[in-house]
């Protein structure tokens, strides 16, 4: 409407009056209202989500106005659920609703940045050398130049550069490192591909084409629960959150659902409205406790004791006193409880449980010619020994018998759970007891370290002519829980009030939970499962999994579920939610991510072992293997340092290694040619002679450490980096706050397998490159920082275990400033690398060591004894007693062409996952038509992958979860192994093909796939183990069933063949640190826990202005009121926490919700926000990981043994941190170090 007339005085409308002239009608200008109306106008809405590893995976509307993102709101158009189930929306949280702040904030990375000292050296070198590789070499060959930029990492000093210059520098560094030391010295770390799978794949594809090392994350984050691979042969598979609603009894155990699973919490409360009883088990009064009917508060770290006390009640009341037919039938069919275990005799005449009996132990092998040493044996109801279908020996080398049908040798049979009533004798069997181990911070119940219990046994004649006694796993389990079977067992409990392992009275002594509560909840849990056939559920979280003995915690809870027949039943089972681990279209993503379309196998490394070694954390190790051993084991066989066990595991092929050999793997072929051998045969010969050694045996030799490290989609040094200060000192070569003494300065046990150097190398990394959209703690310590597109500026995909949908990340706007998507960044580096490498690297032969992989025939490598070829106990046989040695041909000048095209190995070898394979030619042809093909060059005729959108379509086309035709092929392939028909699970979706534009229009529900154990169905919600129970598909374990008995020799030696309560370890981080000068305030040792926070997702959002406004605005540590009074600390005081690993500063939150003896610093509060200097270190206070250090567990190193075999992020050493203790005290001087230069800070530290 025109306002022209309003400008003229004589055209003003006269105002009327009212109320006898007391009021007047005004006609003033109201243009100001337009600004309010326009505030909420927008040009378009684009669907996207947040790639932040929160498991939420929520769909959001992104509002764009004038080319800028203005705000976001939650989408509400999720596909409907069935009528008896609540809908998925609303999904979202305050953290996600604040993300748009980042796009235009001061913390946004806008331009490529580089450390000033490094770029000056680089520019000078380039002026002297026209070849970039020679220029980088000139810097690397000058120790003073290297030290000059390494020692100032973390001290600022960034300057703006450009993409061309930095791509050239990175490419030259990569080429020189590969040429000089080998491609395995170039590594990359990025976590959780499910949160932005194309962005993850960009970096790993580049690294894999080079032969570089891709580092794991799920184990390093301590999100991996080793109990899951142990029990089910599955990394993690859990119910979607909608299945909570189907449950009749839920225990939230160490999982703070409303705080850390905010978008899903409505299902939890809706289930309560339906009548579901909910129990919270957390040591602190957390938010989940407010949503529950009852709250139990066990002493932190004693969860396995509580679970075993509950298991004692369940077994006594529902298996012995009043047996539940449902429970017994479930255990008979779906667990290893009927399987027989051979007993080994001890010197005192008692016995210990040995390994599981196999068909090969018997004279006729029970008629099993294929893999008889991997087929477990049970007694059937008629007293015959049988090898029932489904054990892992049926998986490989034959078809049609790998199933859970009640069949053995083609005959239907019913297995016996217990030998009681069929037994030949009663024998005393010894069990280890760890609950009496003394720890000043945890309660113990003193009993004999070896408990001899009476069990029914069978006497059996074996193939070697001997007679052995055998017992069923079921009887072992009952005895382990201390139950009286009427066999005159003096160690068994007479009733619940006996303080004997593992009664409720004993549990009360250890955990502090009243015995009546233990009895009641265990009884209710089991009674509900009995009446509903398994609809009892346990939701678990990081609070339980982050302890050193996390597998004991989890196995105690898993046992409860298995005893009650809950796993694989709708509304039942375990629900482990730590990390957005579920990459649903995994098999479609794998070839893209690890360049399996061009080269196989890729180099992959478990990060826990990697950082334990290369950050020299092992040099400060005080824990010994002897402290962990079972009292039934021979200590002489387990001497040495913890790193020795890791070295042995790498040498025997159990674990991967990186770097792999003590020489450049590209140089092996030349030596092999001179010797007239193949590269693989030469490597075997040289390893046996000692001419070649594993790099892990000489970590400080100067040649055997990583040199280039890429970090993207991660805040390694500000979030997940356990042993933060060790990383600063040894990987980066900069200042650190370590307060402990290395082994060289103390009398600790030194390694036997590792060459000891008195001085460790500091500053091992020549180049640290970080990609991020914001300035994080990792960026601060990097050499080069590359600005990436935010989640609203790129195309990508996102899935979660919490719901069945696949979501897009969409480019609502172009990347701001000079930022680029991860795909474009790595594509650019690949392009420059292909140019720079000419003259230095061509077509090269690479020798790759590949560990004995789970879900491959190599998991059958080592069936019985542990034999080490280095000690002469066996021959070095690749793929059997040592890693596979694989020759891979690399074409370095073609790196870019290969990066941007789909390679020929998919045509030749097909695709697959988790031991299943299928032909994928149709999908490759389809992608050639969709993405077009390369017209020339080394990849001529291959489908193009030029953009992130192309990469997304590759994943969607290849994955059975998003391509119905592939799903049918995958189910057919599984059916050939099981001998059963499974295609009915996907045949109705055969014509469904999800494309990227489809998921931009609306979230799409994925298609059921045999690589997962649940179903996407109109009739049931996704629940892990559902297809195992209802389709009779075996679990991928030794017995093919849920494996409660772990019979590997190391598991038995460390006392963990069966679940046991193991108290937290003593890391000696407080007792053996150097003397810290007092500051006048009292000090106290407290257990240091790092739960997930409310105002951030890991470190993201922790410096977001909106979240800082809602929270206290900086680092905080929660302590109890009792401890605060003792230490003279008041709420909001500045405090310092320190131990041998380092120190941190924060403000105190004094709260009655925290029990005495424990303190909590919520995980990943960035060091860039409001942190003063430390009185202990003289530097700016550290982060939560400044007071932690990795401590690996030997039983997590096992490999080549059925389900206990390595897989990337599947099984391996885990980065736990909750056993740590800190000294805490009030700070006297708050120094912000604002006006001090580096030299003054260092003088203060000295």
UniProtKB/TrEMBL annotation:
Domain of life from the UniProt record: Bacteria
Q: InterPro entries this protein is in?
A: Asp_de-COase-like_dom_sf (IPR009010), MopB_CT_Nitrate-R-NarG-like (IPR037943), MoPterin_dinucl-bd_dom (IPR006657), Mopterin_OxRdtase (IPR006656), Mopterin_OxRdtase_4Fe-4S_dom (IPR006963), Mopterin_OxRdtase_prok_CS (IPR006655), MopterinOxRdtase_cofactor_BS (IPR027467), NarG (IPR006468)
The family annotation for this protein states: Belongs to the prokaryotic molybdopterin-containing oxidoreductase family.
GO terms under biological process: anaerobic electron transport chain; nitrate assimilation
Protein name (database record)? nitrate reductase (quinone)
Which species is listed as the source? Answer: Salmonella enterica I
Group of enzyme by EC:
oxidoreductase
User: Which Gene Ontology molecular-function terms are recorded?
Assistant: 4 iron, 4 sulfur cluster binding; metal ion binding; molybdopterin cofactor binding; nitrate reductase (quinone) activity
- Keywords (A to Z) from UniProt: 4Fe-4S, Cell membrane, Electron transport, Iron, Iron-sulfur, Membrane, Metal-binding, Molybdenum, Nitrate assimilation, Oxidoreductase, Periplasm, Transport
A Pfam family this chain is assigned to:
Nitr_red_alph_N
Give me the reactions it catalyses.
nitrate + a quinol = a quinone + nitrite + H2O
Q: How does it sit in the membrane?
A: Peripheral membrane protein
Q: What is its EC number?
A: 1.7.5.1
Alphabetical list of SUPFAM superfamilies matching this protein: ADC-like, Formate dehydrogenase/DMSO reductase, domains 1-3
Does the keyword Magnesium belong to this entry?
Answer: no
Cellular location of this protein?
Answer: Cell membrane
Keyword field contains Metal-binding: yes
Q: What is its main location?
A: membrane
Which cofactors does this gene product need?
Mo-bis(molybdopterin guanine dinucleotide); [4Fe-4S] cluster
Q: Which GO terms describe its cellular component?
A: nitrate reductase complex; plasma membrane
Q: Which residues form the 4Fe-4S Mo/W bis-MGD-type domain?
A: 43-107
